[in-house]
Amino acid sequence: MAAQGMSENPHYLADIRLVLLGTEGEGKRSVGNTILGKDEFSAQKTDECMTKCRAVVGRQITVINTPGWGREQRLAQTPVSVQEQHLQCVFPPGVHALLLVIRADRKFTEAHRAALQDHVELFGENVWNHTMVLFTCGDLLGETTIEEFIANEGAPIQWVVVKCSYRYCRFNNTERADGAQVSQLLEFIEILVAMNTGQCFEIDSQRHKAEVMRNARDATEISADEEDGGCSNVQQT
Fold first, then answer.
1. Which residues are bridge partners to 135 per DSSP?
2. Cα–Cα–Cα angle for 132, 213, 219, nearest 5°?
3. Is pLDDT above 70 for 231?
4. Residue 233 is assigned to a structural domain of this protein
């Protein structure tokens, strides 16, 4: 699906700001480079957020790549300095969308889901309204559609998709010359923003930041004592 021009697309945004979230090794750096159409993010591991900007298909795109966490690493195990880096990404003027980068060629377990929930909800429960899933390694699925993958993968990944209100996209980082997938992603993001009445997601004060971090730590302590990760009610389709 090609990107529409401003006159044809009622949700058109000339300036889009994105945050990439996910565990280590999910392909966030490659996603950022694919979106920007250039090797802007280096392969060097860092504990700091990296921001890159570039004009893409008529828009000014800002991509913020965040430090990853271990696949089963709960929020309490993540250094406070890294948590603060994540929160600073959504200080004013905020971002239009947060992309959860998840590899489609790795089993997504309940432990992985719990760790992801911890780190996403560091931003507060409302963050899910501004979040979508971006599945990388889409080429490795072969003829399997992304819908079939989600249906077959099980309850943990279905829980994430439901939390994102079924907003998801399949990405192939080996096909950077294919601008169609980037254009489609940007259109999805524009629709997401429209559903949020044009509002960006942001944490607007240091006080709110401290409150969010405190609530996230409390939630982590509670979840560590629970045997049920909370996705058992999601039915497989």
1. 102, 170
2. 80
3. no
4. no
Burial class (CB in 10 A: 0-12, 13-18, 19+), 235: exposed
Give Cβ neighbours of residue 199 (< 8 Å, ≥ 6 apart). 193
| Residue 194 to residue 10: CA distance in whole angstroms | 9
Can you tell me the mean pLDDT for 162-167? Answer: 96
In angstroms, the CA 186 to CA 55 distance is 13
The CATH number covering residue 86 comes to: 3.40.50.300
| Contact in structure between 167 and 132 (CB atoms under 8 Å) | yes
CA–CA distance, 16 with 168 (Å, rounded to integer): 18
| Structure confidence at residue 11 (pLDDT) | 80
Residue 235 belongs to some domain of the structure:
no
pLDDT digits (tens, 9 = 90+) for 76-87: 899 888 898 999
